[in-house]
Write a structure and sequence with these properties.
Layout: H1 7-33, H2 36-41, E1 46-53, E2 56-58, E3 63-72, E4 82-84, E5 91-92, E6 97-103, E7 106-116, E8 129-131, E9 136-140, E10 150-154, E11 159-162, H3 196-228
Parallel strand pairs: 2-11
Antiparallel strand pairs: 1-3, 3-7, 4-9, 5-7, 6-7, 8-11, 9-10
Length: about 230
Amino acid sequence: MNGRVPTGLYLAVGFGAVAAAVAAVVVLVAGGGGGGADDLAGARPVQARATVTPRQSFFGDTLNAKIEVLVDRQRVDPKTVRLATTFRPYEPASRLVRARSDGGTETLLTYTVRLRCLSSVCIPRRTPTLVQFPRAHLTYDLLGAKAPARSGPVVWPVLRVFSRLDRNELIPGNPNYQPPWRANLTPPDASYAISPGLLGGLLLGVAGILGAASLLLVRPYLRRRVAEA
């Protein structure tokens, strides 16, 4: 061999590089073509997050549920955003409040409501009991799109609910077992702002003064009657 690379080898390497580049373009186009305009634009037009505070609570406590929805106004009209949700087994303790805040090309929609459950279905059978509300659903319309409204689920966080009774208090016993809590039925000692004896003496003194004053008032009348007789 004279050290020269055959011309055919150069051609083979060149055709291989071109084929690899074409294959890479095809893969990129195929991978990005299924997502539509939303994927080409980057972030989704509507993003949502659900929170509940407190995450750990006792039976009967009031919870604060909130859903925050970030809307791209260049692609979605915030007025078309609709929320559908339930909080079973909890029930609303207030009306659902929607607030709107605009900034730049985005709008933040905030849905807040207070929740409470006092029914037997919410009594923790074991401590703690895990509770998760059914998924909420958001629907919205894309600007200029003739397609039907789009929708997406919103997942609520898992809550931990504790009983207000101690574990030992929930252990079943015999019918004669006395519960650990007690009530004192003895009334407390009476207390007075003024001693009853002192108050009685003052009232007698006031009564005597009033009696003497009444005698002084009727004394002239009695003298006149005696004189006339």
